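hey can u check if this looks right to u? its 874 residues, i copy pasted from the old doc so theres a chance i mangled smth
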Amino acid sequence: MSRKSSSVALVAALVSTALAASASAAEPQRTRYKLPSSNGWGALLVDLYEGKASELREHVFAAEEPQIDAQGQDIWDGEQFATVHTRDVLYDAYFGVRAEGDQFWLTSAPVDQDASGYVAWNDLETAGTGIVAIEQPLGALEATTFAFAPQGLEAAGMVLLLRLKNTGAQPLQGVQAFSLHNFHLGFGRAKRPWDVHEDIAANGETVEFVGGAEARFRERGFAGTIVTRALTPIVHRGVGPDVDLFGVVAQSQQDLPDNAAPANAVDDAITAFQWDVGTIMPGAEAWVGIAAIHRGDPFAGAEAETMLDAWIDGVGPQVMLARERNVWADIHAATKLPDGLSAPEVPMLRQAVAMLHMGQVLEDRSFAREWLSQDGEPRRTRFPGLDDQPATLPAWIKHRGHGAVLASLPPGEWTYAWIRDGAYATAAMAALGMQEHSRAALSFYLDAEAGRFQQWSELQPYGMPPYQISLVRYHGFGVEETDFNAFGPNLEFDGFGLFLWALRAYEVLTGDTSLADARWEEIATEVADVLVALVDPETGMIRADSSIWETHWLGRERRFTYTSITAARGLCDAAAIAERRGDAARADMYRKTGESIRAAIAAHATDGERALAGSVEELATGEGYFDAAVWDAVAMGLFDPQGPIAQATLAAIDEHLRVDAGPGWSRNDDRWDHANMEDATPWGSDYDSAEWVITDLRGSVALRAGGQAARADALIEWVRAQAATNYFMTAETFDEQTGTYKFNAPMLGFGAGAYALALAHRAGALTDPACGAYFVEDEEDTTGADTGDSTSSTGAPDTTTAVPTTGGATTDATTETATTTMGTTSVTSAGTATAGLTDGSSSEDGCGCTSGSSGAPAALLLLGLGLRCRRRRA
């Protein structure tokens, strides 16, 4: 080892151990009180600060599909392509009580926020469900509201149950319970995804009451119909707006008025039920509740009632809660948790399973009206009817959304299916034994409508081939989507490699190879071959794109290291699948191309200390090129975790990106870089300087691979403790100064999924190098310049990417790739690549290259106590 490389490695080790020992993270703080529940068809939001259900979204995703004109073309609204967004049809819903001489709505009573949160899936554990409990002590009476989106109901809906328990020594007499339901079914739709939570209008609503033992209200308006059914016999009911139902309970001791519903449509209709609970003896409980279903067809009340009644199946509130918990118990019974979990990690991972389940779209059809947001405003659709014939609206349509995994659940804004977030989530599902979930996600990417941007002018210089994986994300109905700002669209190429990585992860972790076998031609020609075609002839990396942090275009595209990392990893995984299938030509092409991209990263994306830069363009400026996304170069097994590149990268990320509050890093230095010169990344903001959970957790994987278990565990524990304090909802980011949650939560692929992957790696399930071996680095040269040749175990340097002549379609031309790699050598294993994923056993090293790791010397811990390198921000 050269003296300079040795020094870098020593400094990295000293600094790293010092940071693990001396960093004092901020204490976790609870700042999020809105908890989502989803059944894959709709989403309910429960507010633990206000003590009520505050949103019911007709879909779990933010947007249905692009708006199209009469010719079937997408409509531009001046800033973006116009979109049909999801509606929130609930203003609020909650319970009230009369007890001990007082009558009030529970929204006016304090919530025990420590006792509230997600209900346990069994009596021996914590959390793990989509059932939210709101605990409210009311003197001797304890009120608990249970709220959830009902699993198994193939529609948007909600269940609210109220348990009243006498915790005192005397009977409570004359107890009454109330429920209030304020739906909004009028005009309106959000025009942007961040406005989906805004209430639509409540105009033109018609209400009908049906009495009897199963009392219910039918309410309809422009936005569809809702049936709300009482789960036990009621004694009174009320309908607004003619009567102030809120005031009846909040300002008097009166019963609900049993008034007739208005004969005609009204604005701001409200409904309410009242139950005579009677006497509750000491230690006894009483239960009441409601269940509601939404349908987009205003005239589908009878159908909605039938579906809701079938789901209820005659059970009362207490049995219904037990039945719902059993559904979650069945989900957990089918999962497998990594070995070696601590007691606090178990509920966090159980809730991660629940979050991933709730964030997966289950619907495959939807009702579409002929009008968009108000009468007379036409709506059109690209999708067929249920009979696969062109749909004439209003009609039920069949779409491609089933299986999509969203980036976040509400109230997070990112309720879209990003391929990047989804790939981490899909791999995590496989690692957790959620095989059906993981396979459905992979199938979604293969079935969704993609390739929509192939002919765009931005991609013309690249000769973009037909492709199947979205260049950004998907609308809820399974249509490729991107967003725009003043610098044009986001167009990202990392999704191709990430899909291939997740697919191979699924194969290795589940043993199921049938999906790739059934869809191999599509996967090869419209995913893997696309990466081969996108190799940059100048550098051998992947061509410039918007990449993970979505920089947009028009001069802001870069040859980002992260995109090339995922491409190299994904092509190595595609090679493994091709080899398994006996597709030797493709296996050879994908392996050579993946190794060549990896070599190009070492040649063109490392600085003089061998640290990985965020992009080729930023590196050329000489400063401000640090990006924590490059952790995946180590976490995905491209480079030896204890080699010069990994160690120099660790030292650089610690020096330039460490935050003040937590043990992790800002995602990059774009907010602060290049203060006194023309900036290669002039778009930085507090989104960049925030501490990112995804890079914390991918960094944890990289650190553990490099033998730094203490730091790796500290990062995992920081994320876990924060999430546990915030009802097990994993953040997107933490404030870099205070450590509090910042921006979106709960995140799925970048949150719960990344957490699960970090624990799976700790248990030994994420360990194999890309293409069977780490890149072998020549430690004598640290200039970052092209100074030598690259060879591999397959023979002489390859200056073109081989095109298969058998076993599948060919591309039109070969792609030149850089082969000089600053005196480094890439060596391939004689064994089969396993996507960086194993079932927990050690991989076999089929060559003389490095593929293992060992712990850092313990003595360095004491030597490094006084060192703590990080750049403080003003």
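The longest helix spans residues 584-604.
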